[in-house]
Design brief:
Blueprint lengths: L1 E6 L3 H13 L2 E7 L8 E2 L2 E5 L4 H8 L3 E4 L4 H14 L4 E2 L2 E2 L4 E2 L10 E2 L4 E2 L4 E2 L4 E2 L4 E2 L4 E2 L4 E2 L4 E2 L4 E2 L4 E2 L4 E2 L4 E2 L4 E2 L4 E2 L7 E4 L4 E5 L9
Parallel strand pairs: 1-2, 1-5, 2-4, 5-6, 7-9, 8-10, 9-12, 10-13, 11-14, 12-15, 13-16, 14-17, 15-18, 16-19, 17-20, 18-21, 19-22, 21-23
Antiparallel strand pairs: 3-4, 23-24
Length: about 220
């Protein structure tokens, strides 16, 4: 059983801990977090260091893998870049809750997290460092690019393209054959009946574009 760490100790990270414990695939050794106190306990596990201490912790605890416990897509990407630079030997592991339903022809790449009761249907392609949150559904023949995410209760119909860094927020529905551009945020509860371009903030039922957004701006607090 590989020893792993979680980078970040937010609410999303707590959900990852729960999935790890129910999978019995990895041994969770603690959190790395630069904004919380060392030895603070989060969901039964201690914060054992910050990012600068990561190389030493890897050696001391025989750490073989890490997962990024950050829900915001741009922040998660920035964390990946920092970790890759400071500890290039570490494997970024994927975490899949045992209640998730994943079609047999679907592979889950590095860094991606699949939460309870998520569904990924046939011939869907999921990128690196994605999140499919609780009870989200990705339809057949869909493509999620790297660092994109589906929030809890999202439904994506067949043959939808979701761009890199884009986020589909709580309970949104996207009908078939549409494209969501890169770094775009689809607001909670939206009904998406048309494609949305790159770097947009859009919401509503039916959806409409509200404004442009910076690719690196946070959408989660």
């Amino acid at each position: 059983m590989k020893n792993i760490l979680i980078y970040g100790a937010s609410g999303h990270a707590k959900m990852i801990v729960d999935s790890i414990q129910k999978n019995h695939t990895y041994a969770m050794k603690g959190f790395i977090d630069s904004y919380k106190l060392i030895n603070e306990v989060v969901f039964g596990h201690s914060i054992i260091g910050d990012l600068k201490q990561l190389p030493d912790i890897v050696k001391q605890l025989n750490i073989e893998g890490i997962v990024i416990g950050i829900g915001d897509n741009s922040t998660r990407k920035a964390a990946y870049q920092k970790i890759k630079k400071i500890a290039p030997q570490l494997e970024f592991v994927s975490i899949i809750h045992p209640s998730a339903t994943i079609a047999l022809d679907v592979s889950i790449p590095e860094g991606t997290v699949i939460m309870p009761n998520a569904v990924i249907n046939a011939n869907a392609k999921v990128g690196r460092f994605c999140i499919l949150n609780t009870a989200s559904t990705l339809g057949h023949d869909c493509k999620m690019a790297d660092f994109s995410s589906l929030a809890s209760g999202v439904t994506v119909a067949g043959s939808v393209q979701i761009g890199a860094g884009s986020a589909v927020c709580l309970g949104a529905t996207i009908i078939q054959n549409l494209t969501i551009g890169d770094n775009t945020v689809i607001g909670a509860g939206s009904l998406v009946l048309k494609s949305i371009g790159n770097n947009k903030m859009a919401y509503g039922a039916p959806i409409h574009t509200i404004k442009d957004r910076s690719p690196n701006s946070k959408y989660l607090g």
